[in-house]
Amino acid sequence: MKKTYEVLNVKCGGCAGTLTSSLKEKFGDVEVDLEVQPRQITLEIEESQEEDLKVALRGLGYPLSTDELSGFQKATTTAKSFVSCAIGKMNK
Predict the structure, then answer these.
(1) Do 36 and 74 contact (CB within 8 A), yes or no?
(2) Given this model, what pLDDT does residue 87 score?
(3) Most buried of the four, 10, 17, 39, 77, by CB within 10 Å?
(4) 53 alpha-carbon distance from chain centroid
(5) What is 2-90's CATH topology?
(6) pLDDT tens, residue by residue, 5-33
(7) What pLDDT, on the 0 to 100 scale, is given for residue 89?
């Protein structure tokens, strides 16, 4: 089923590039909407894959807006997002 999720820490095309390339193998094509706040991703996903998506997004530094994160976790995901963004810009 095609679903849309709100994702935090996505700032630019570099972030979008990291999301699409990093999630492609496991989740297929991912659309990133940089025109809305918070940013949104849309993909074909089964309900059984949602936890894997949540974990993958956190690992990249882009948690779902619905994730309940501690202060430390928020800081960690923000730091990871800067690295992911830079990688996405270099891979363009």
Answers:
(1) no
(2) 86
(3) 10
(4) 9
(5) Alpha-Beta Plaits (3.30.70)
(6) 999 999 999 999 999 999 999 999 999 99
(7) 87
Asked if omega into 63 is within 30° of 0 (cis), the reply is no
Q: For the chain, where are the E strands, in sequence order?
A: 2-7, 30-33, 39-44
What is the Cα–Cα distance from 38 to 6, expressed in whole angstroms?
6
What are the distances in angstroms from CA 37 to CA 8, 10, 33, 86?
A: 9, 9, 9, 21
What does the pLDDT average to over 61-78?
A: 93
The residue type at 75: A
Rounded distance, CA 66 to CA 4, Å? 12
Q: How many residues appear in the chain?
A: 92
Can you read off the two tokens belonging to residue 21? 């390339």
Among positive and negative, which fits the CA dihedral 4, 6, 11, 14?
negative
